[in-house]
Amino acid sequence: xxxxxxxxxxxxxxxxxxxxxxxxxxxxxxxxxxxxxxxxxxxxxxxxxxxxxxxxxxxxxxxxxxxxxxxxxxxxxxxxxxxxxxxxxxxxxxxxxxxxxxxxxxxxxxxxxxxxxxxxxxxxxxxxxxxxxxxxxxxxxxxxxxxxxxxxxxxxxxxxxxxxxxxxxxxxxxxxxxxxxxxxxxxxxxxxxxxxxxxxxxxxxxxxxxxxxxxxxxxxxxxxxxxxxxxxxxxxxxxxxxxxxxxxxxxxxxxxxxxxxxxxxxxxxxxxxxxxxxxxxxxxxxxxxxxxxxxxxxxxxxxxxxxxxxxxxxxxxxxxxxxx
Length: 324
Ligand code: ATP
Known about the structure:
Mean pLDDT: 94
Low-confidence stretches: none
Radius of gyration: 21 Å
Helix content: 40-55%
Oligomer: single chain
Shape: elongated
Structural class: alpha/beta
Number of strands: 11
Order of helices and strands: EHEHEHEHEHEHEHEHEHEEHH
Bound molecules: adenosine-5'-triphosphate
Number of helices: 11
């Protein structure tokens, strides 16, 4: 029987992680468990940065962005020695199971750890990229999408006033979900994403789309890793071919991660946190909590990590059709 659970946030922070920690803490306590938070992800697990949380410790954190229990990228956890040290912390703290909140790297580490030490690990998808297979949404994605859309609205004002082509660089690691859907929501002229090669043709299309339809400005979103050098490279390519165009580059950067989580992300994080604890009570192990058609589901961690989630073809179509 699981008496004590550990919870950590790892990888890039995402709005709604606090709501997930709150949900895990309160649901765990409601199940009669002791809940221990591990600060700074796997780094804190190795260093033994552990604290028992009460329901009061998570009071008032649901509207806060970032992660109260901190996050870190930890190279030591990639090594068997690092994971051994992490396991020693679990033994010392009598932690019987782990709930890890993060992206695919976090799940890869968690899955390996679970296999090596025969430990129940449950993953909660917390990443703005929404790139995990087996779940329609990840915690933080909706908030980031809204932040990007608001930024586009503001850029549109200045783009129209000066009749310029704005290239806006959007985060997403290897995935184009944020870029494509922000382009739809922001009414952009084009989105350049890694899932839809060839990129050069996308750029040519992007150049043509706004101007050829006699628009006086264009906003083109560029996924950060779609092109080497990101939006700046695309701007150079455009100006080389069309010196008559005046381009401007905006890199939204880390502001995309920040801010108070949207209601959707708070609800998602709360449901997933409660479901993660319930999964442990039910004897589940090495699964990710996901959401599909508004139902909570459990997906093997191995699938969430290894299967590739593709963008929706109809979204790609919509973006292209509506940019005319
Ligand atoms: P995001 O998608 O927001 O970047 P992430 O969880 O994918 O989040 P990563 O930095 O890739 O972020 O991974 C977080 C941590 O997980 C790493 O710093 C490392 O400690 C651990 N991790 C990642 N990959 C592995 C691996 N192959 N083996 C062991 N640990 C790993």
